[in-house]
Specification:
Blueprint (H helix, E strand, L loop, with lengths): L1 H44 L5 E2 L8 E3 L3 E2 L6 E8 L11 E9 L6 E3 L7 E9 L10 E9 L10 E6 L6 E16 L4 E8 L2 E8 L5 E6 L7
Antiparallel strand pairs: 1-2, 2-4, 3-4, 4-5, 5-6, 7-8, 8-9, 9-10, 10-11, 11-12, 12-13
């Protein structure tokens, strides 16, 4: 009798121990599942890029990823807005409202334009002339900036010229409708061809200082 009673106690103790072990395992599994779900939800709630302070609630302005400017060590990122119907393009196009410059050496950053209101409808980099396989150095960049459609019936804007870091920005033409060409014609000079008032203009610049050397209307000879 005593022996049977002893084994019954042993089985009871073993059963309790097994229940405790199973309960602990279930708690551990549940905690792991809950933690994994929490991490997943946290990743979903974190956006890829935070919106920049916007001037209307129609669509947020978002900063794109910084990219290296060819021929330089400067990073450049575009501040864009996507509308159902873009002001200067087809439906769903992205509008560039500003450009951010970042110096990787110091971490300093600056905006190209003083406001995010207008739209960059054309941008182009001008590199030095050369036939080497290496990336030629960047001489200057240009952007044509226009007000949002509806604010300017003629669709004209201002043409800006700037250096690789965006620190030196100058206006090189107003009431410009479009840009048609920009390239280095020699080691010391580059040109920009643009349309203003229904006529084409050719502006020449010094490659080192980016100073405007001349600007003239392109004369079209008469055909007899």
């Amino acid at each position: 009798m005593r022996t049977g009673r002893f084994f019954r106690y042993v089985w009871r103790i073993n059963a309790v121990a097994i229940l405790l072990i199973v309960a602990a395992a279930l708690v551990g599994i549940s905690w792991a599942v809950v933690s994994d779900i929490a991490r997943h939800l946290s990743r979903q709630k974190t956006p890829a890029a935070q919106p920049i302070a916007q001037e209307d609630s129609e669509a947020p302005l978002k900063l794109g990823p910084p990219r290296t400017v060819a021929g330089t060590k400067i990073l450049r990122a575009e501040l864009t807005r996507t509308r159902p119907e873009s002001s200067y393009g087809s439906s769903g196009d992205s509008e560039t409202h500003n450009i951010l410059f970042v110096d990787p050496a110091t971490g300093a950053s600056s905006w190209l334009l003083k406001s995010h209101k207008n739209i960059v409808v054309h941008s182009e980099d001008i590199h030095a002339a050369g036939g080497s396989k290496e990336e030629p150095p960047l001489l200057a960049s240009i952007v044509l900036v226009k007000p949002p459609a509806g604010n300017d019936e003629d669709g004209i804007g201002e043409l800006f010229l700037f250096d690789a870091s965006g620190a030196q920005v100058s206006s090189i033409g107003d009431k410009v409708r479009s840009v048609h060409a920009a390239w280095a014609v020699s080691a010391s000079e580059f040109i920009v061809v643009f349309e203003r008032g229904g006529k084409y203009h050719l502006a020449r610049f010094d490659s080192t200082t980016r100073r405007k050397l001349s600007e003239a209307e392109i004369k079209v000879p008469a055909i007899r």
